[in-house]
Amino acid sequence: MTYIVNDNCIACKYTDCVEVCPVDCFYEGENMLVIHPDECIDCGVCEPECPADAIRPDTEPDMEKWVEFNRKYSEMWPVIITKKDPLPTAEEMDGKEGKMELFSEAAGEGG
After folding, report:
1. What is the pLDDT of residue 1?
2. What residue spans carry the Basic and acidic residues bias annotation (predicted)?
């Protein structure tokens, strides 16, 4: 089992989760984070830290697409281990539908 980040993170990018991760498996894109599924140790400490409820276990229904999404972008983006401010749109975008159309493949800064 692993944890994944889903589209609830897009345009929010809360980073509370990265500080509690014992294996530094979060990667930063321009407007969201992902988890490398092969590095995640399934400890679950990140899930309750996410204000947007964007971190889910891969055992939930229809998660395979998110495992592959997280794998793809974790191999392209830099690792992030330090908490940063969320995006300015975080509060208004939290919980919105249709956020995939806002997704950016661009890498974040990492750090």
Report:
1. 87
2. 93-102
